[in-house]
Every structure is written in structure tokens, then in C-alpha cells.
Amino acid sequence: MDLQTPLSKISRPLKMYAGRLEKLGIVTVSDLLYHVPHRYDDFSLTSSIARLQPGEIVTVKGTVLEIKNEYTRRAKPIQKALVVDDTGSITVTWFNQPFLTRVIKPNMTLALSGKVEWFGKTKTLTAPSYEILSENGEAIHTGRLVPIYPETAGVTSKWLRRQIYMLLSQEPVEEYLPEDILKKNNLIGLPKALQTVHFPETLEDAESAKNRLAFDELLFLQMKATRRRREWEVVRRGHVFKVQPFQKEIDLLWENLPFSLTLAQRNASHAIFQDLEKEKPMNRLLQGDVGSGKTVVAAAAMYLAFLNDYQSVLMAPTEILAQQHFKTVSGLLEPLGVKVDLVTGSKKYPMSNVKYQIHTNNDKGEKKKLVKLDIVHLAFDILVGTHAVLYEQVQFTKLGLVVIDEQQRFGVEQRSLIRQKGDHPHVLTMTATPIPRTVALTIYGDLDLSYLDEMPKGRKIVKTWLVPTIKRNGAYEWIRKQIKEAGSQAFIICPFIEQSETMQTVKAASVEYERLKNEVFPDLNLGLLHGKMKTKEKDDVLLAFREKQYDILVATPVVEVGIDIPNATVILIEAAERFGLAQLHQLRGRVGRGEKQSFCLLFTESTSDMTINKLKALETTYVGAQLAELDLRLRGPGELYGTLQSGIPELKVASFSDVALIQRAKRAADELYPKLTTDKQLQKAFSSLQTTSVSPD
Q1: H-type helices in 49-134, by residue range?
Q2: Checking DSSP bridges between strand 489-493 and strand 568-573, what pairing results, if any?
Q3: The model's pTM
Q4: Angle subtended by helix axes 203-233 and 659-672, to nearest 10
Q5: 601-643, pLDDT tens digit by residue?
Q6: Are residues 416 and 473 in the same domain?
Q7: The CATH number of the domain where 127 resides is what?
Q8: For 86-116, what is each residue's pLDDT tens digit?
Q9: Among residues 438, 399, 429, which one has the least CA distance to residue 284?
Q10: What angle do helix axes 535-546 and 319-333 make, rounded to 10 degrees?
């Protein structure tokens, strides 16, 4: 069975349900077979009718004597059937399912699984699961551990169960892992794992099957990382930067900083400099909280490139962030003689570098007009920009280093294009997204990792409070006081743009903006920012906020990355329980950018002790990595990042918290990758990993 076959080509029912299944992320055979149950109903206890005991969850088998629709006083249908076996009879009742009388007929043999209850003095089965049995048919909905799946509208667990059973009854799935890998990692075979995870005999069997499928999922991620790492290693010789001859210049850079480097910054810079001295191009990820000093570390690397007579480019996902980086980098390096320039969507190239040519009339020799030529080379040492740096007009004479900020915000093609503008330049990627180390080892296994896990000295922590609902009005007055008396600005964050029909109590930015503007803060200037606005509209709002035209900015989590408003000292987050700790920490990083003391106020309508304790962790923990690890334990990988999930793969079976399994999968990937060229089974299993390019994703 080819696991990559589209389900629409397998059977008519699967083709008819293709649109619905796609909502569950199910498109191929593999997707369906790896759509594992999230729990099992235990209907394995079977009994004769005479021995049924009220309160038991049990399965009985019997013959239908009669079935009919009855109606309540309010005309609601009830379906009643009388079922018998060799020991007695029992009444079976369903509610509001009138179609059952057309499906279940007298003399049919049924298996019924459910709870036995008293109805007066008579025992009855109420709303049981049912299954029509054929002579040799195997029961899949009753009489066993019955899988319950993640569902969507129009796709029930019973329907999924039937389709998966039919699929597994066809041509068996082929094993692709070598026997020694299976034994070494204590794994069962893939065909058995897929059969067992859907239709286990015991819960222990189900766990064993899930362990095998989780291993496969992590192995695939590790194989992708191994491919990128190996391809990076075989790239021909890159640029070798010299460090020692320029030690005095580098020391001067450190001395001129208006602050002292943290130990983490020094360690990261040392590791990066070591990479830049090697023939193999650097491929390193620098992870650190907002304000931990990543840009300074990157600036030092770009300064070293300048000293070695190479150009650098720093690419940011938004124009606002690019402008912030330009201001920081030029402030640090231009006094040292480094030419820093900026290219964004609204400033496609520096006009000072535009070249013109005089076109003349060949016959008369008269000057005709000035015609702008394409840019050939731009006179800069460091270019900071958005995706505009990918424009054809922007060319580099000697590109030696590429720095990509918030790299998950760029597509694979964009990251590849910028590297192609140089001859195998070194690459440093940066992110402020708090990533647990187990997650980083899995999804960034091809990168060398550096962490900035401490904040610069003197930087004030953002005081964080979980505010009781009864103190909401008091909080509003306190915010007004901060704005009026201290001249500060504030963010108010809502999880949604528009009001949700199903979650009326969760505040939406557009509705809350109107309420706050008209009822709470009529004496202040408020702005609105959300993800549905066009890029220019968002930039205009942010610029107005930065220039203090707004006192309060009401926004969705679109503000979580790349906004530096030093005068903003308060952030109020509504429905905080709807965000992960990692995301709340990033939102909190929008304030505390200046010298003033900053504050984060968390609001929640939840009364759950677990939710309250989780949010209170933000009152005492200020390191993103620690919060990310706690988030992973509390929420699980599927909900880890909320809207930060972009760029982070969603695991269906495995868990990012299973360090031991991640490590085993990594070792197996390193062992299996060299065999891809000779082993046809491995080639087929990992066909999507094959590539002719040696440029990493």
C-alpha cells in the first residue's frame, strides 16, 4: 500500500468525504492511518442478557424482535427495540434517531454496548452503541476497546473507524525500518503498529503501537534535519573570516557599548566567531528573549565580516522591525566606519546609489533624456531590510554573512533566495520565540544552537500581576493615571478580531476598541491594530503610536513580534488563559523597552485552579525558556504556541516532551541517512526528503 496515495483514489466514500477530511488534515492514506485515537471506550466486557447488572458498561449480543418509534408528549421521537438472546430479553432505547427503524430490522443480530440502567423495575440499555453483525464479520464498534477519534462536522468516529478498518483490510503496509533499528529501539513492526493503534486488544498494546508511530514521526523530522545538515556540510568551501588580526577592533566595539555584555552574549559571540573562522559556512540559530541582546551579537558578527572586507545583510520580517534594526546597527557600527543602509518595500534601494546614463540622438548628437539604469552594485557594508533585499536590483559585491531575524516568518524560497545572492555565505538566524530545548533539538536539528538566557544588567523586569475581575475598573483608572501623570502609553491585547459566536465572553479587539473608546477612556486617544489590516495600514498605526498620537493601542496578538515602543509601559492582556505561557511572555516583551518601570496586567474569566496557577507563574518567572518548558508540561505540544505555532510542526502522535524518544530518533536518523542511496524501502518511505539542491531549507 502506497501511503502517499490520495484518499480520493481509494474508494467512493473517501472521495465523497474528501473535503470534510481535509479539515482534519487528512488527505492521503498516511494521514488517515496516522489519525490516531485520542481515547478508547472500553466495551470489552461481554455478558448474556440474564446476567446484566445495572451500572455496568457492557456489550451484549442478541436478535431484534421488534423496533418502533414512540413519541413524547412534545412529539419528540424515541426509538425502542426488544432484543433477546438464549437467556432473556432487554429493552433498548435511543432518543431522536428515527432513522434507526429503517436501519435496524426485526431478526437482525446486533451487538449493543452501553450502560445498563433501571427503568422502573426493568433493566434497559439506554442510547447504546450498536453494530449489525454478519455471520463471519468482526465487531469493530462494540465488544472491544473502541477507538474515539478527533472529529469534525459530518465525520464521526464510527465512520472513521469503518474506513480505517476497510483500509487496513486491503494490501498491508510495508515495513521500512531495518530489523536492527527495530530491536535497538524496542519497536514493534509498522503493519502491527497501525493495526493495533486503531483496534487494540489492551491499552498496553495501544501504547506500544503509539510509541512506534511516535518514533516514526520524530524520525521523519530528524531525517529532514539530517538532510539539511549533511547538505550544508558538503557545500563547497565558504568564506573564512580571520578573527585574531582584528582583536583590537573587536575589543574597541565591546568597550564602546553603553552597557556591559552578559556572559551569554559573550559565549554566543565566541561560538559565532569560531564558526566564521571555518571553511564550512556557519548555520547557527541564536535564540533569546526580547531585550536579551541578539542584535548586538549579530552586529558584532557583521562587524567582523566588514573587517574581513565582506558585506552582510540583515533581513527582518516587517518594515517596522527592519527600521529598528537599522537604527541599532547603524548606531553601533557607523562610528567605526561601517556603511549601513536600509532597503524596505517603501525604500526599495538607496537613491544615492542610483546610476543614470545620458541617452543621445545618434544622428544629431543631441542629449535626449536621462535614463535610470538597473543597480549593479550598492555601496554598503551592511544592508538591513525586509524581503525587499531580494529584489533583482539589489546586488552584492562580496556577500559573506546573512542574518535572518524571526526566520520562521520567512518562507523556504525567500531564505534560499537571499543566500543565492552570495557565494555560500555564513548564515545566522535569530528568534525571540521561546522554544523548549527538546523542541529546538527536533525542528532545528540541522542548526548549531546558541541561547541568550540572561538579560543585560540594569534592565528592569516587567512587573506582572494576575488581576481579579473585581479590580477591573480600578485597573482602568490606574492605567489612566500612568498615561496622564507619567506620560506613558499602553497596549490592550484581545485574542480575537471580531466577537466569536461560540465564545461571547471572550473579548474581541474591534468590539473592545469601541467600548473602551466610548465608555472607559473617552478622554484618551485610542488606536486599533489587527491582522486583517493591510501592511501599510498596520505600519501607519504603529508609527502613529510610536509618535505618541495614540495613548492606548487596542490590538490582537499581531503585536507579539517586532514592535519597539520605548514609551509603552503597560500591557493589559484579556482572556489570558487563551494564550500559552510562551506567547504571553512574548506579548509581555512589548513593554519594558525603555528606562521606565513597566507592567503587565493579566485578566481571565476562568476560575480553574490550574489556569490560575499557570498564569501566576508569569508573576515570578521572567525567562522565556523556563516558561516554554513549563508550558510544554502543562499544555502539551499541540497547544504550546497558540498563534505562535507558525513554523513549529504539529505532532499527531509524538510529544516534544519525550526527550528519550527524540534522542533515539536522532541517533536512528544519523544511522539511516547514509543508507538512503542504496535501500529502496528507505527511499520509498522518505521519498519526500529527496532533493537535488544542496541549499538547506
Answers
A1: 100-103
A2: parallel
A3: 0.66
A4: 50
A5: 999 988 888 889 889 989 988 877 777 777 776 655 444 433 3
A6: no
A7: 2.40.50.140
A8: 999 999 999 999 999 999 999 999 999 999 9
A9: 429
A10: 50
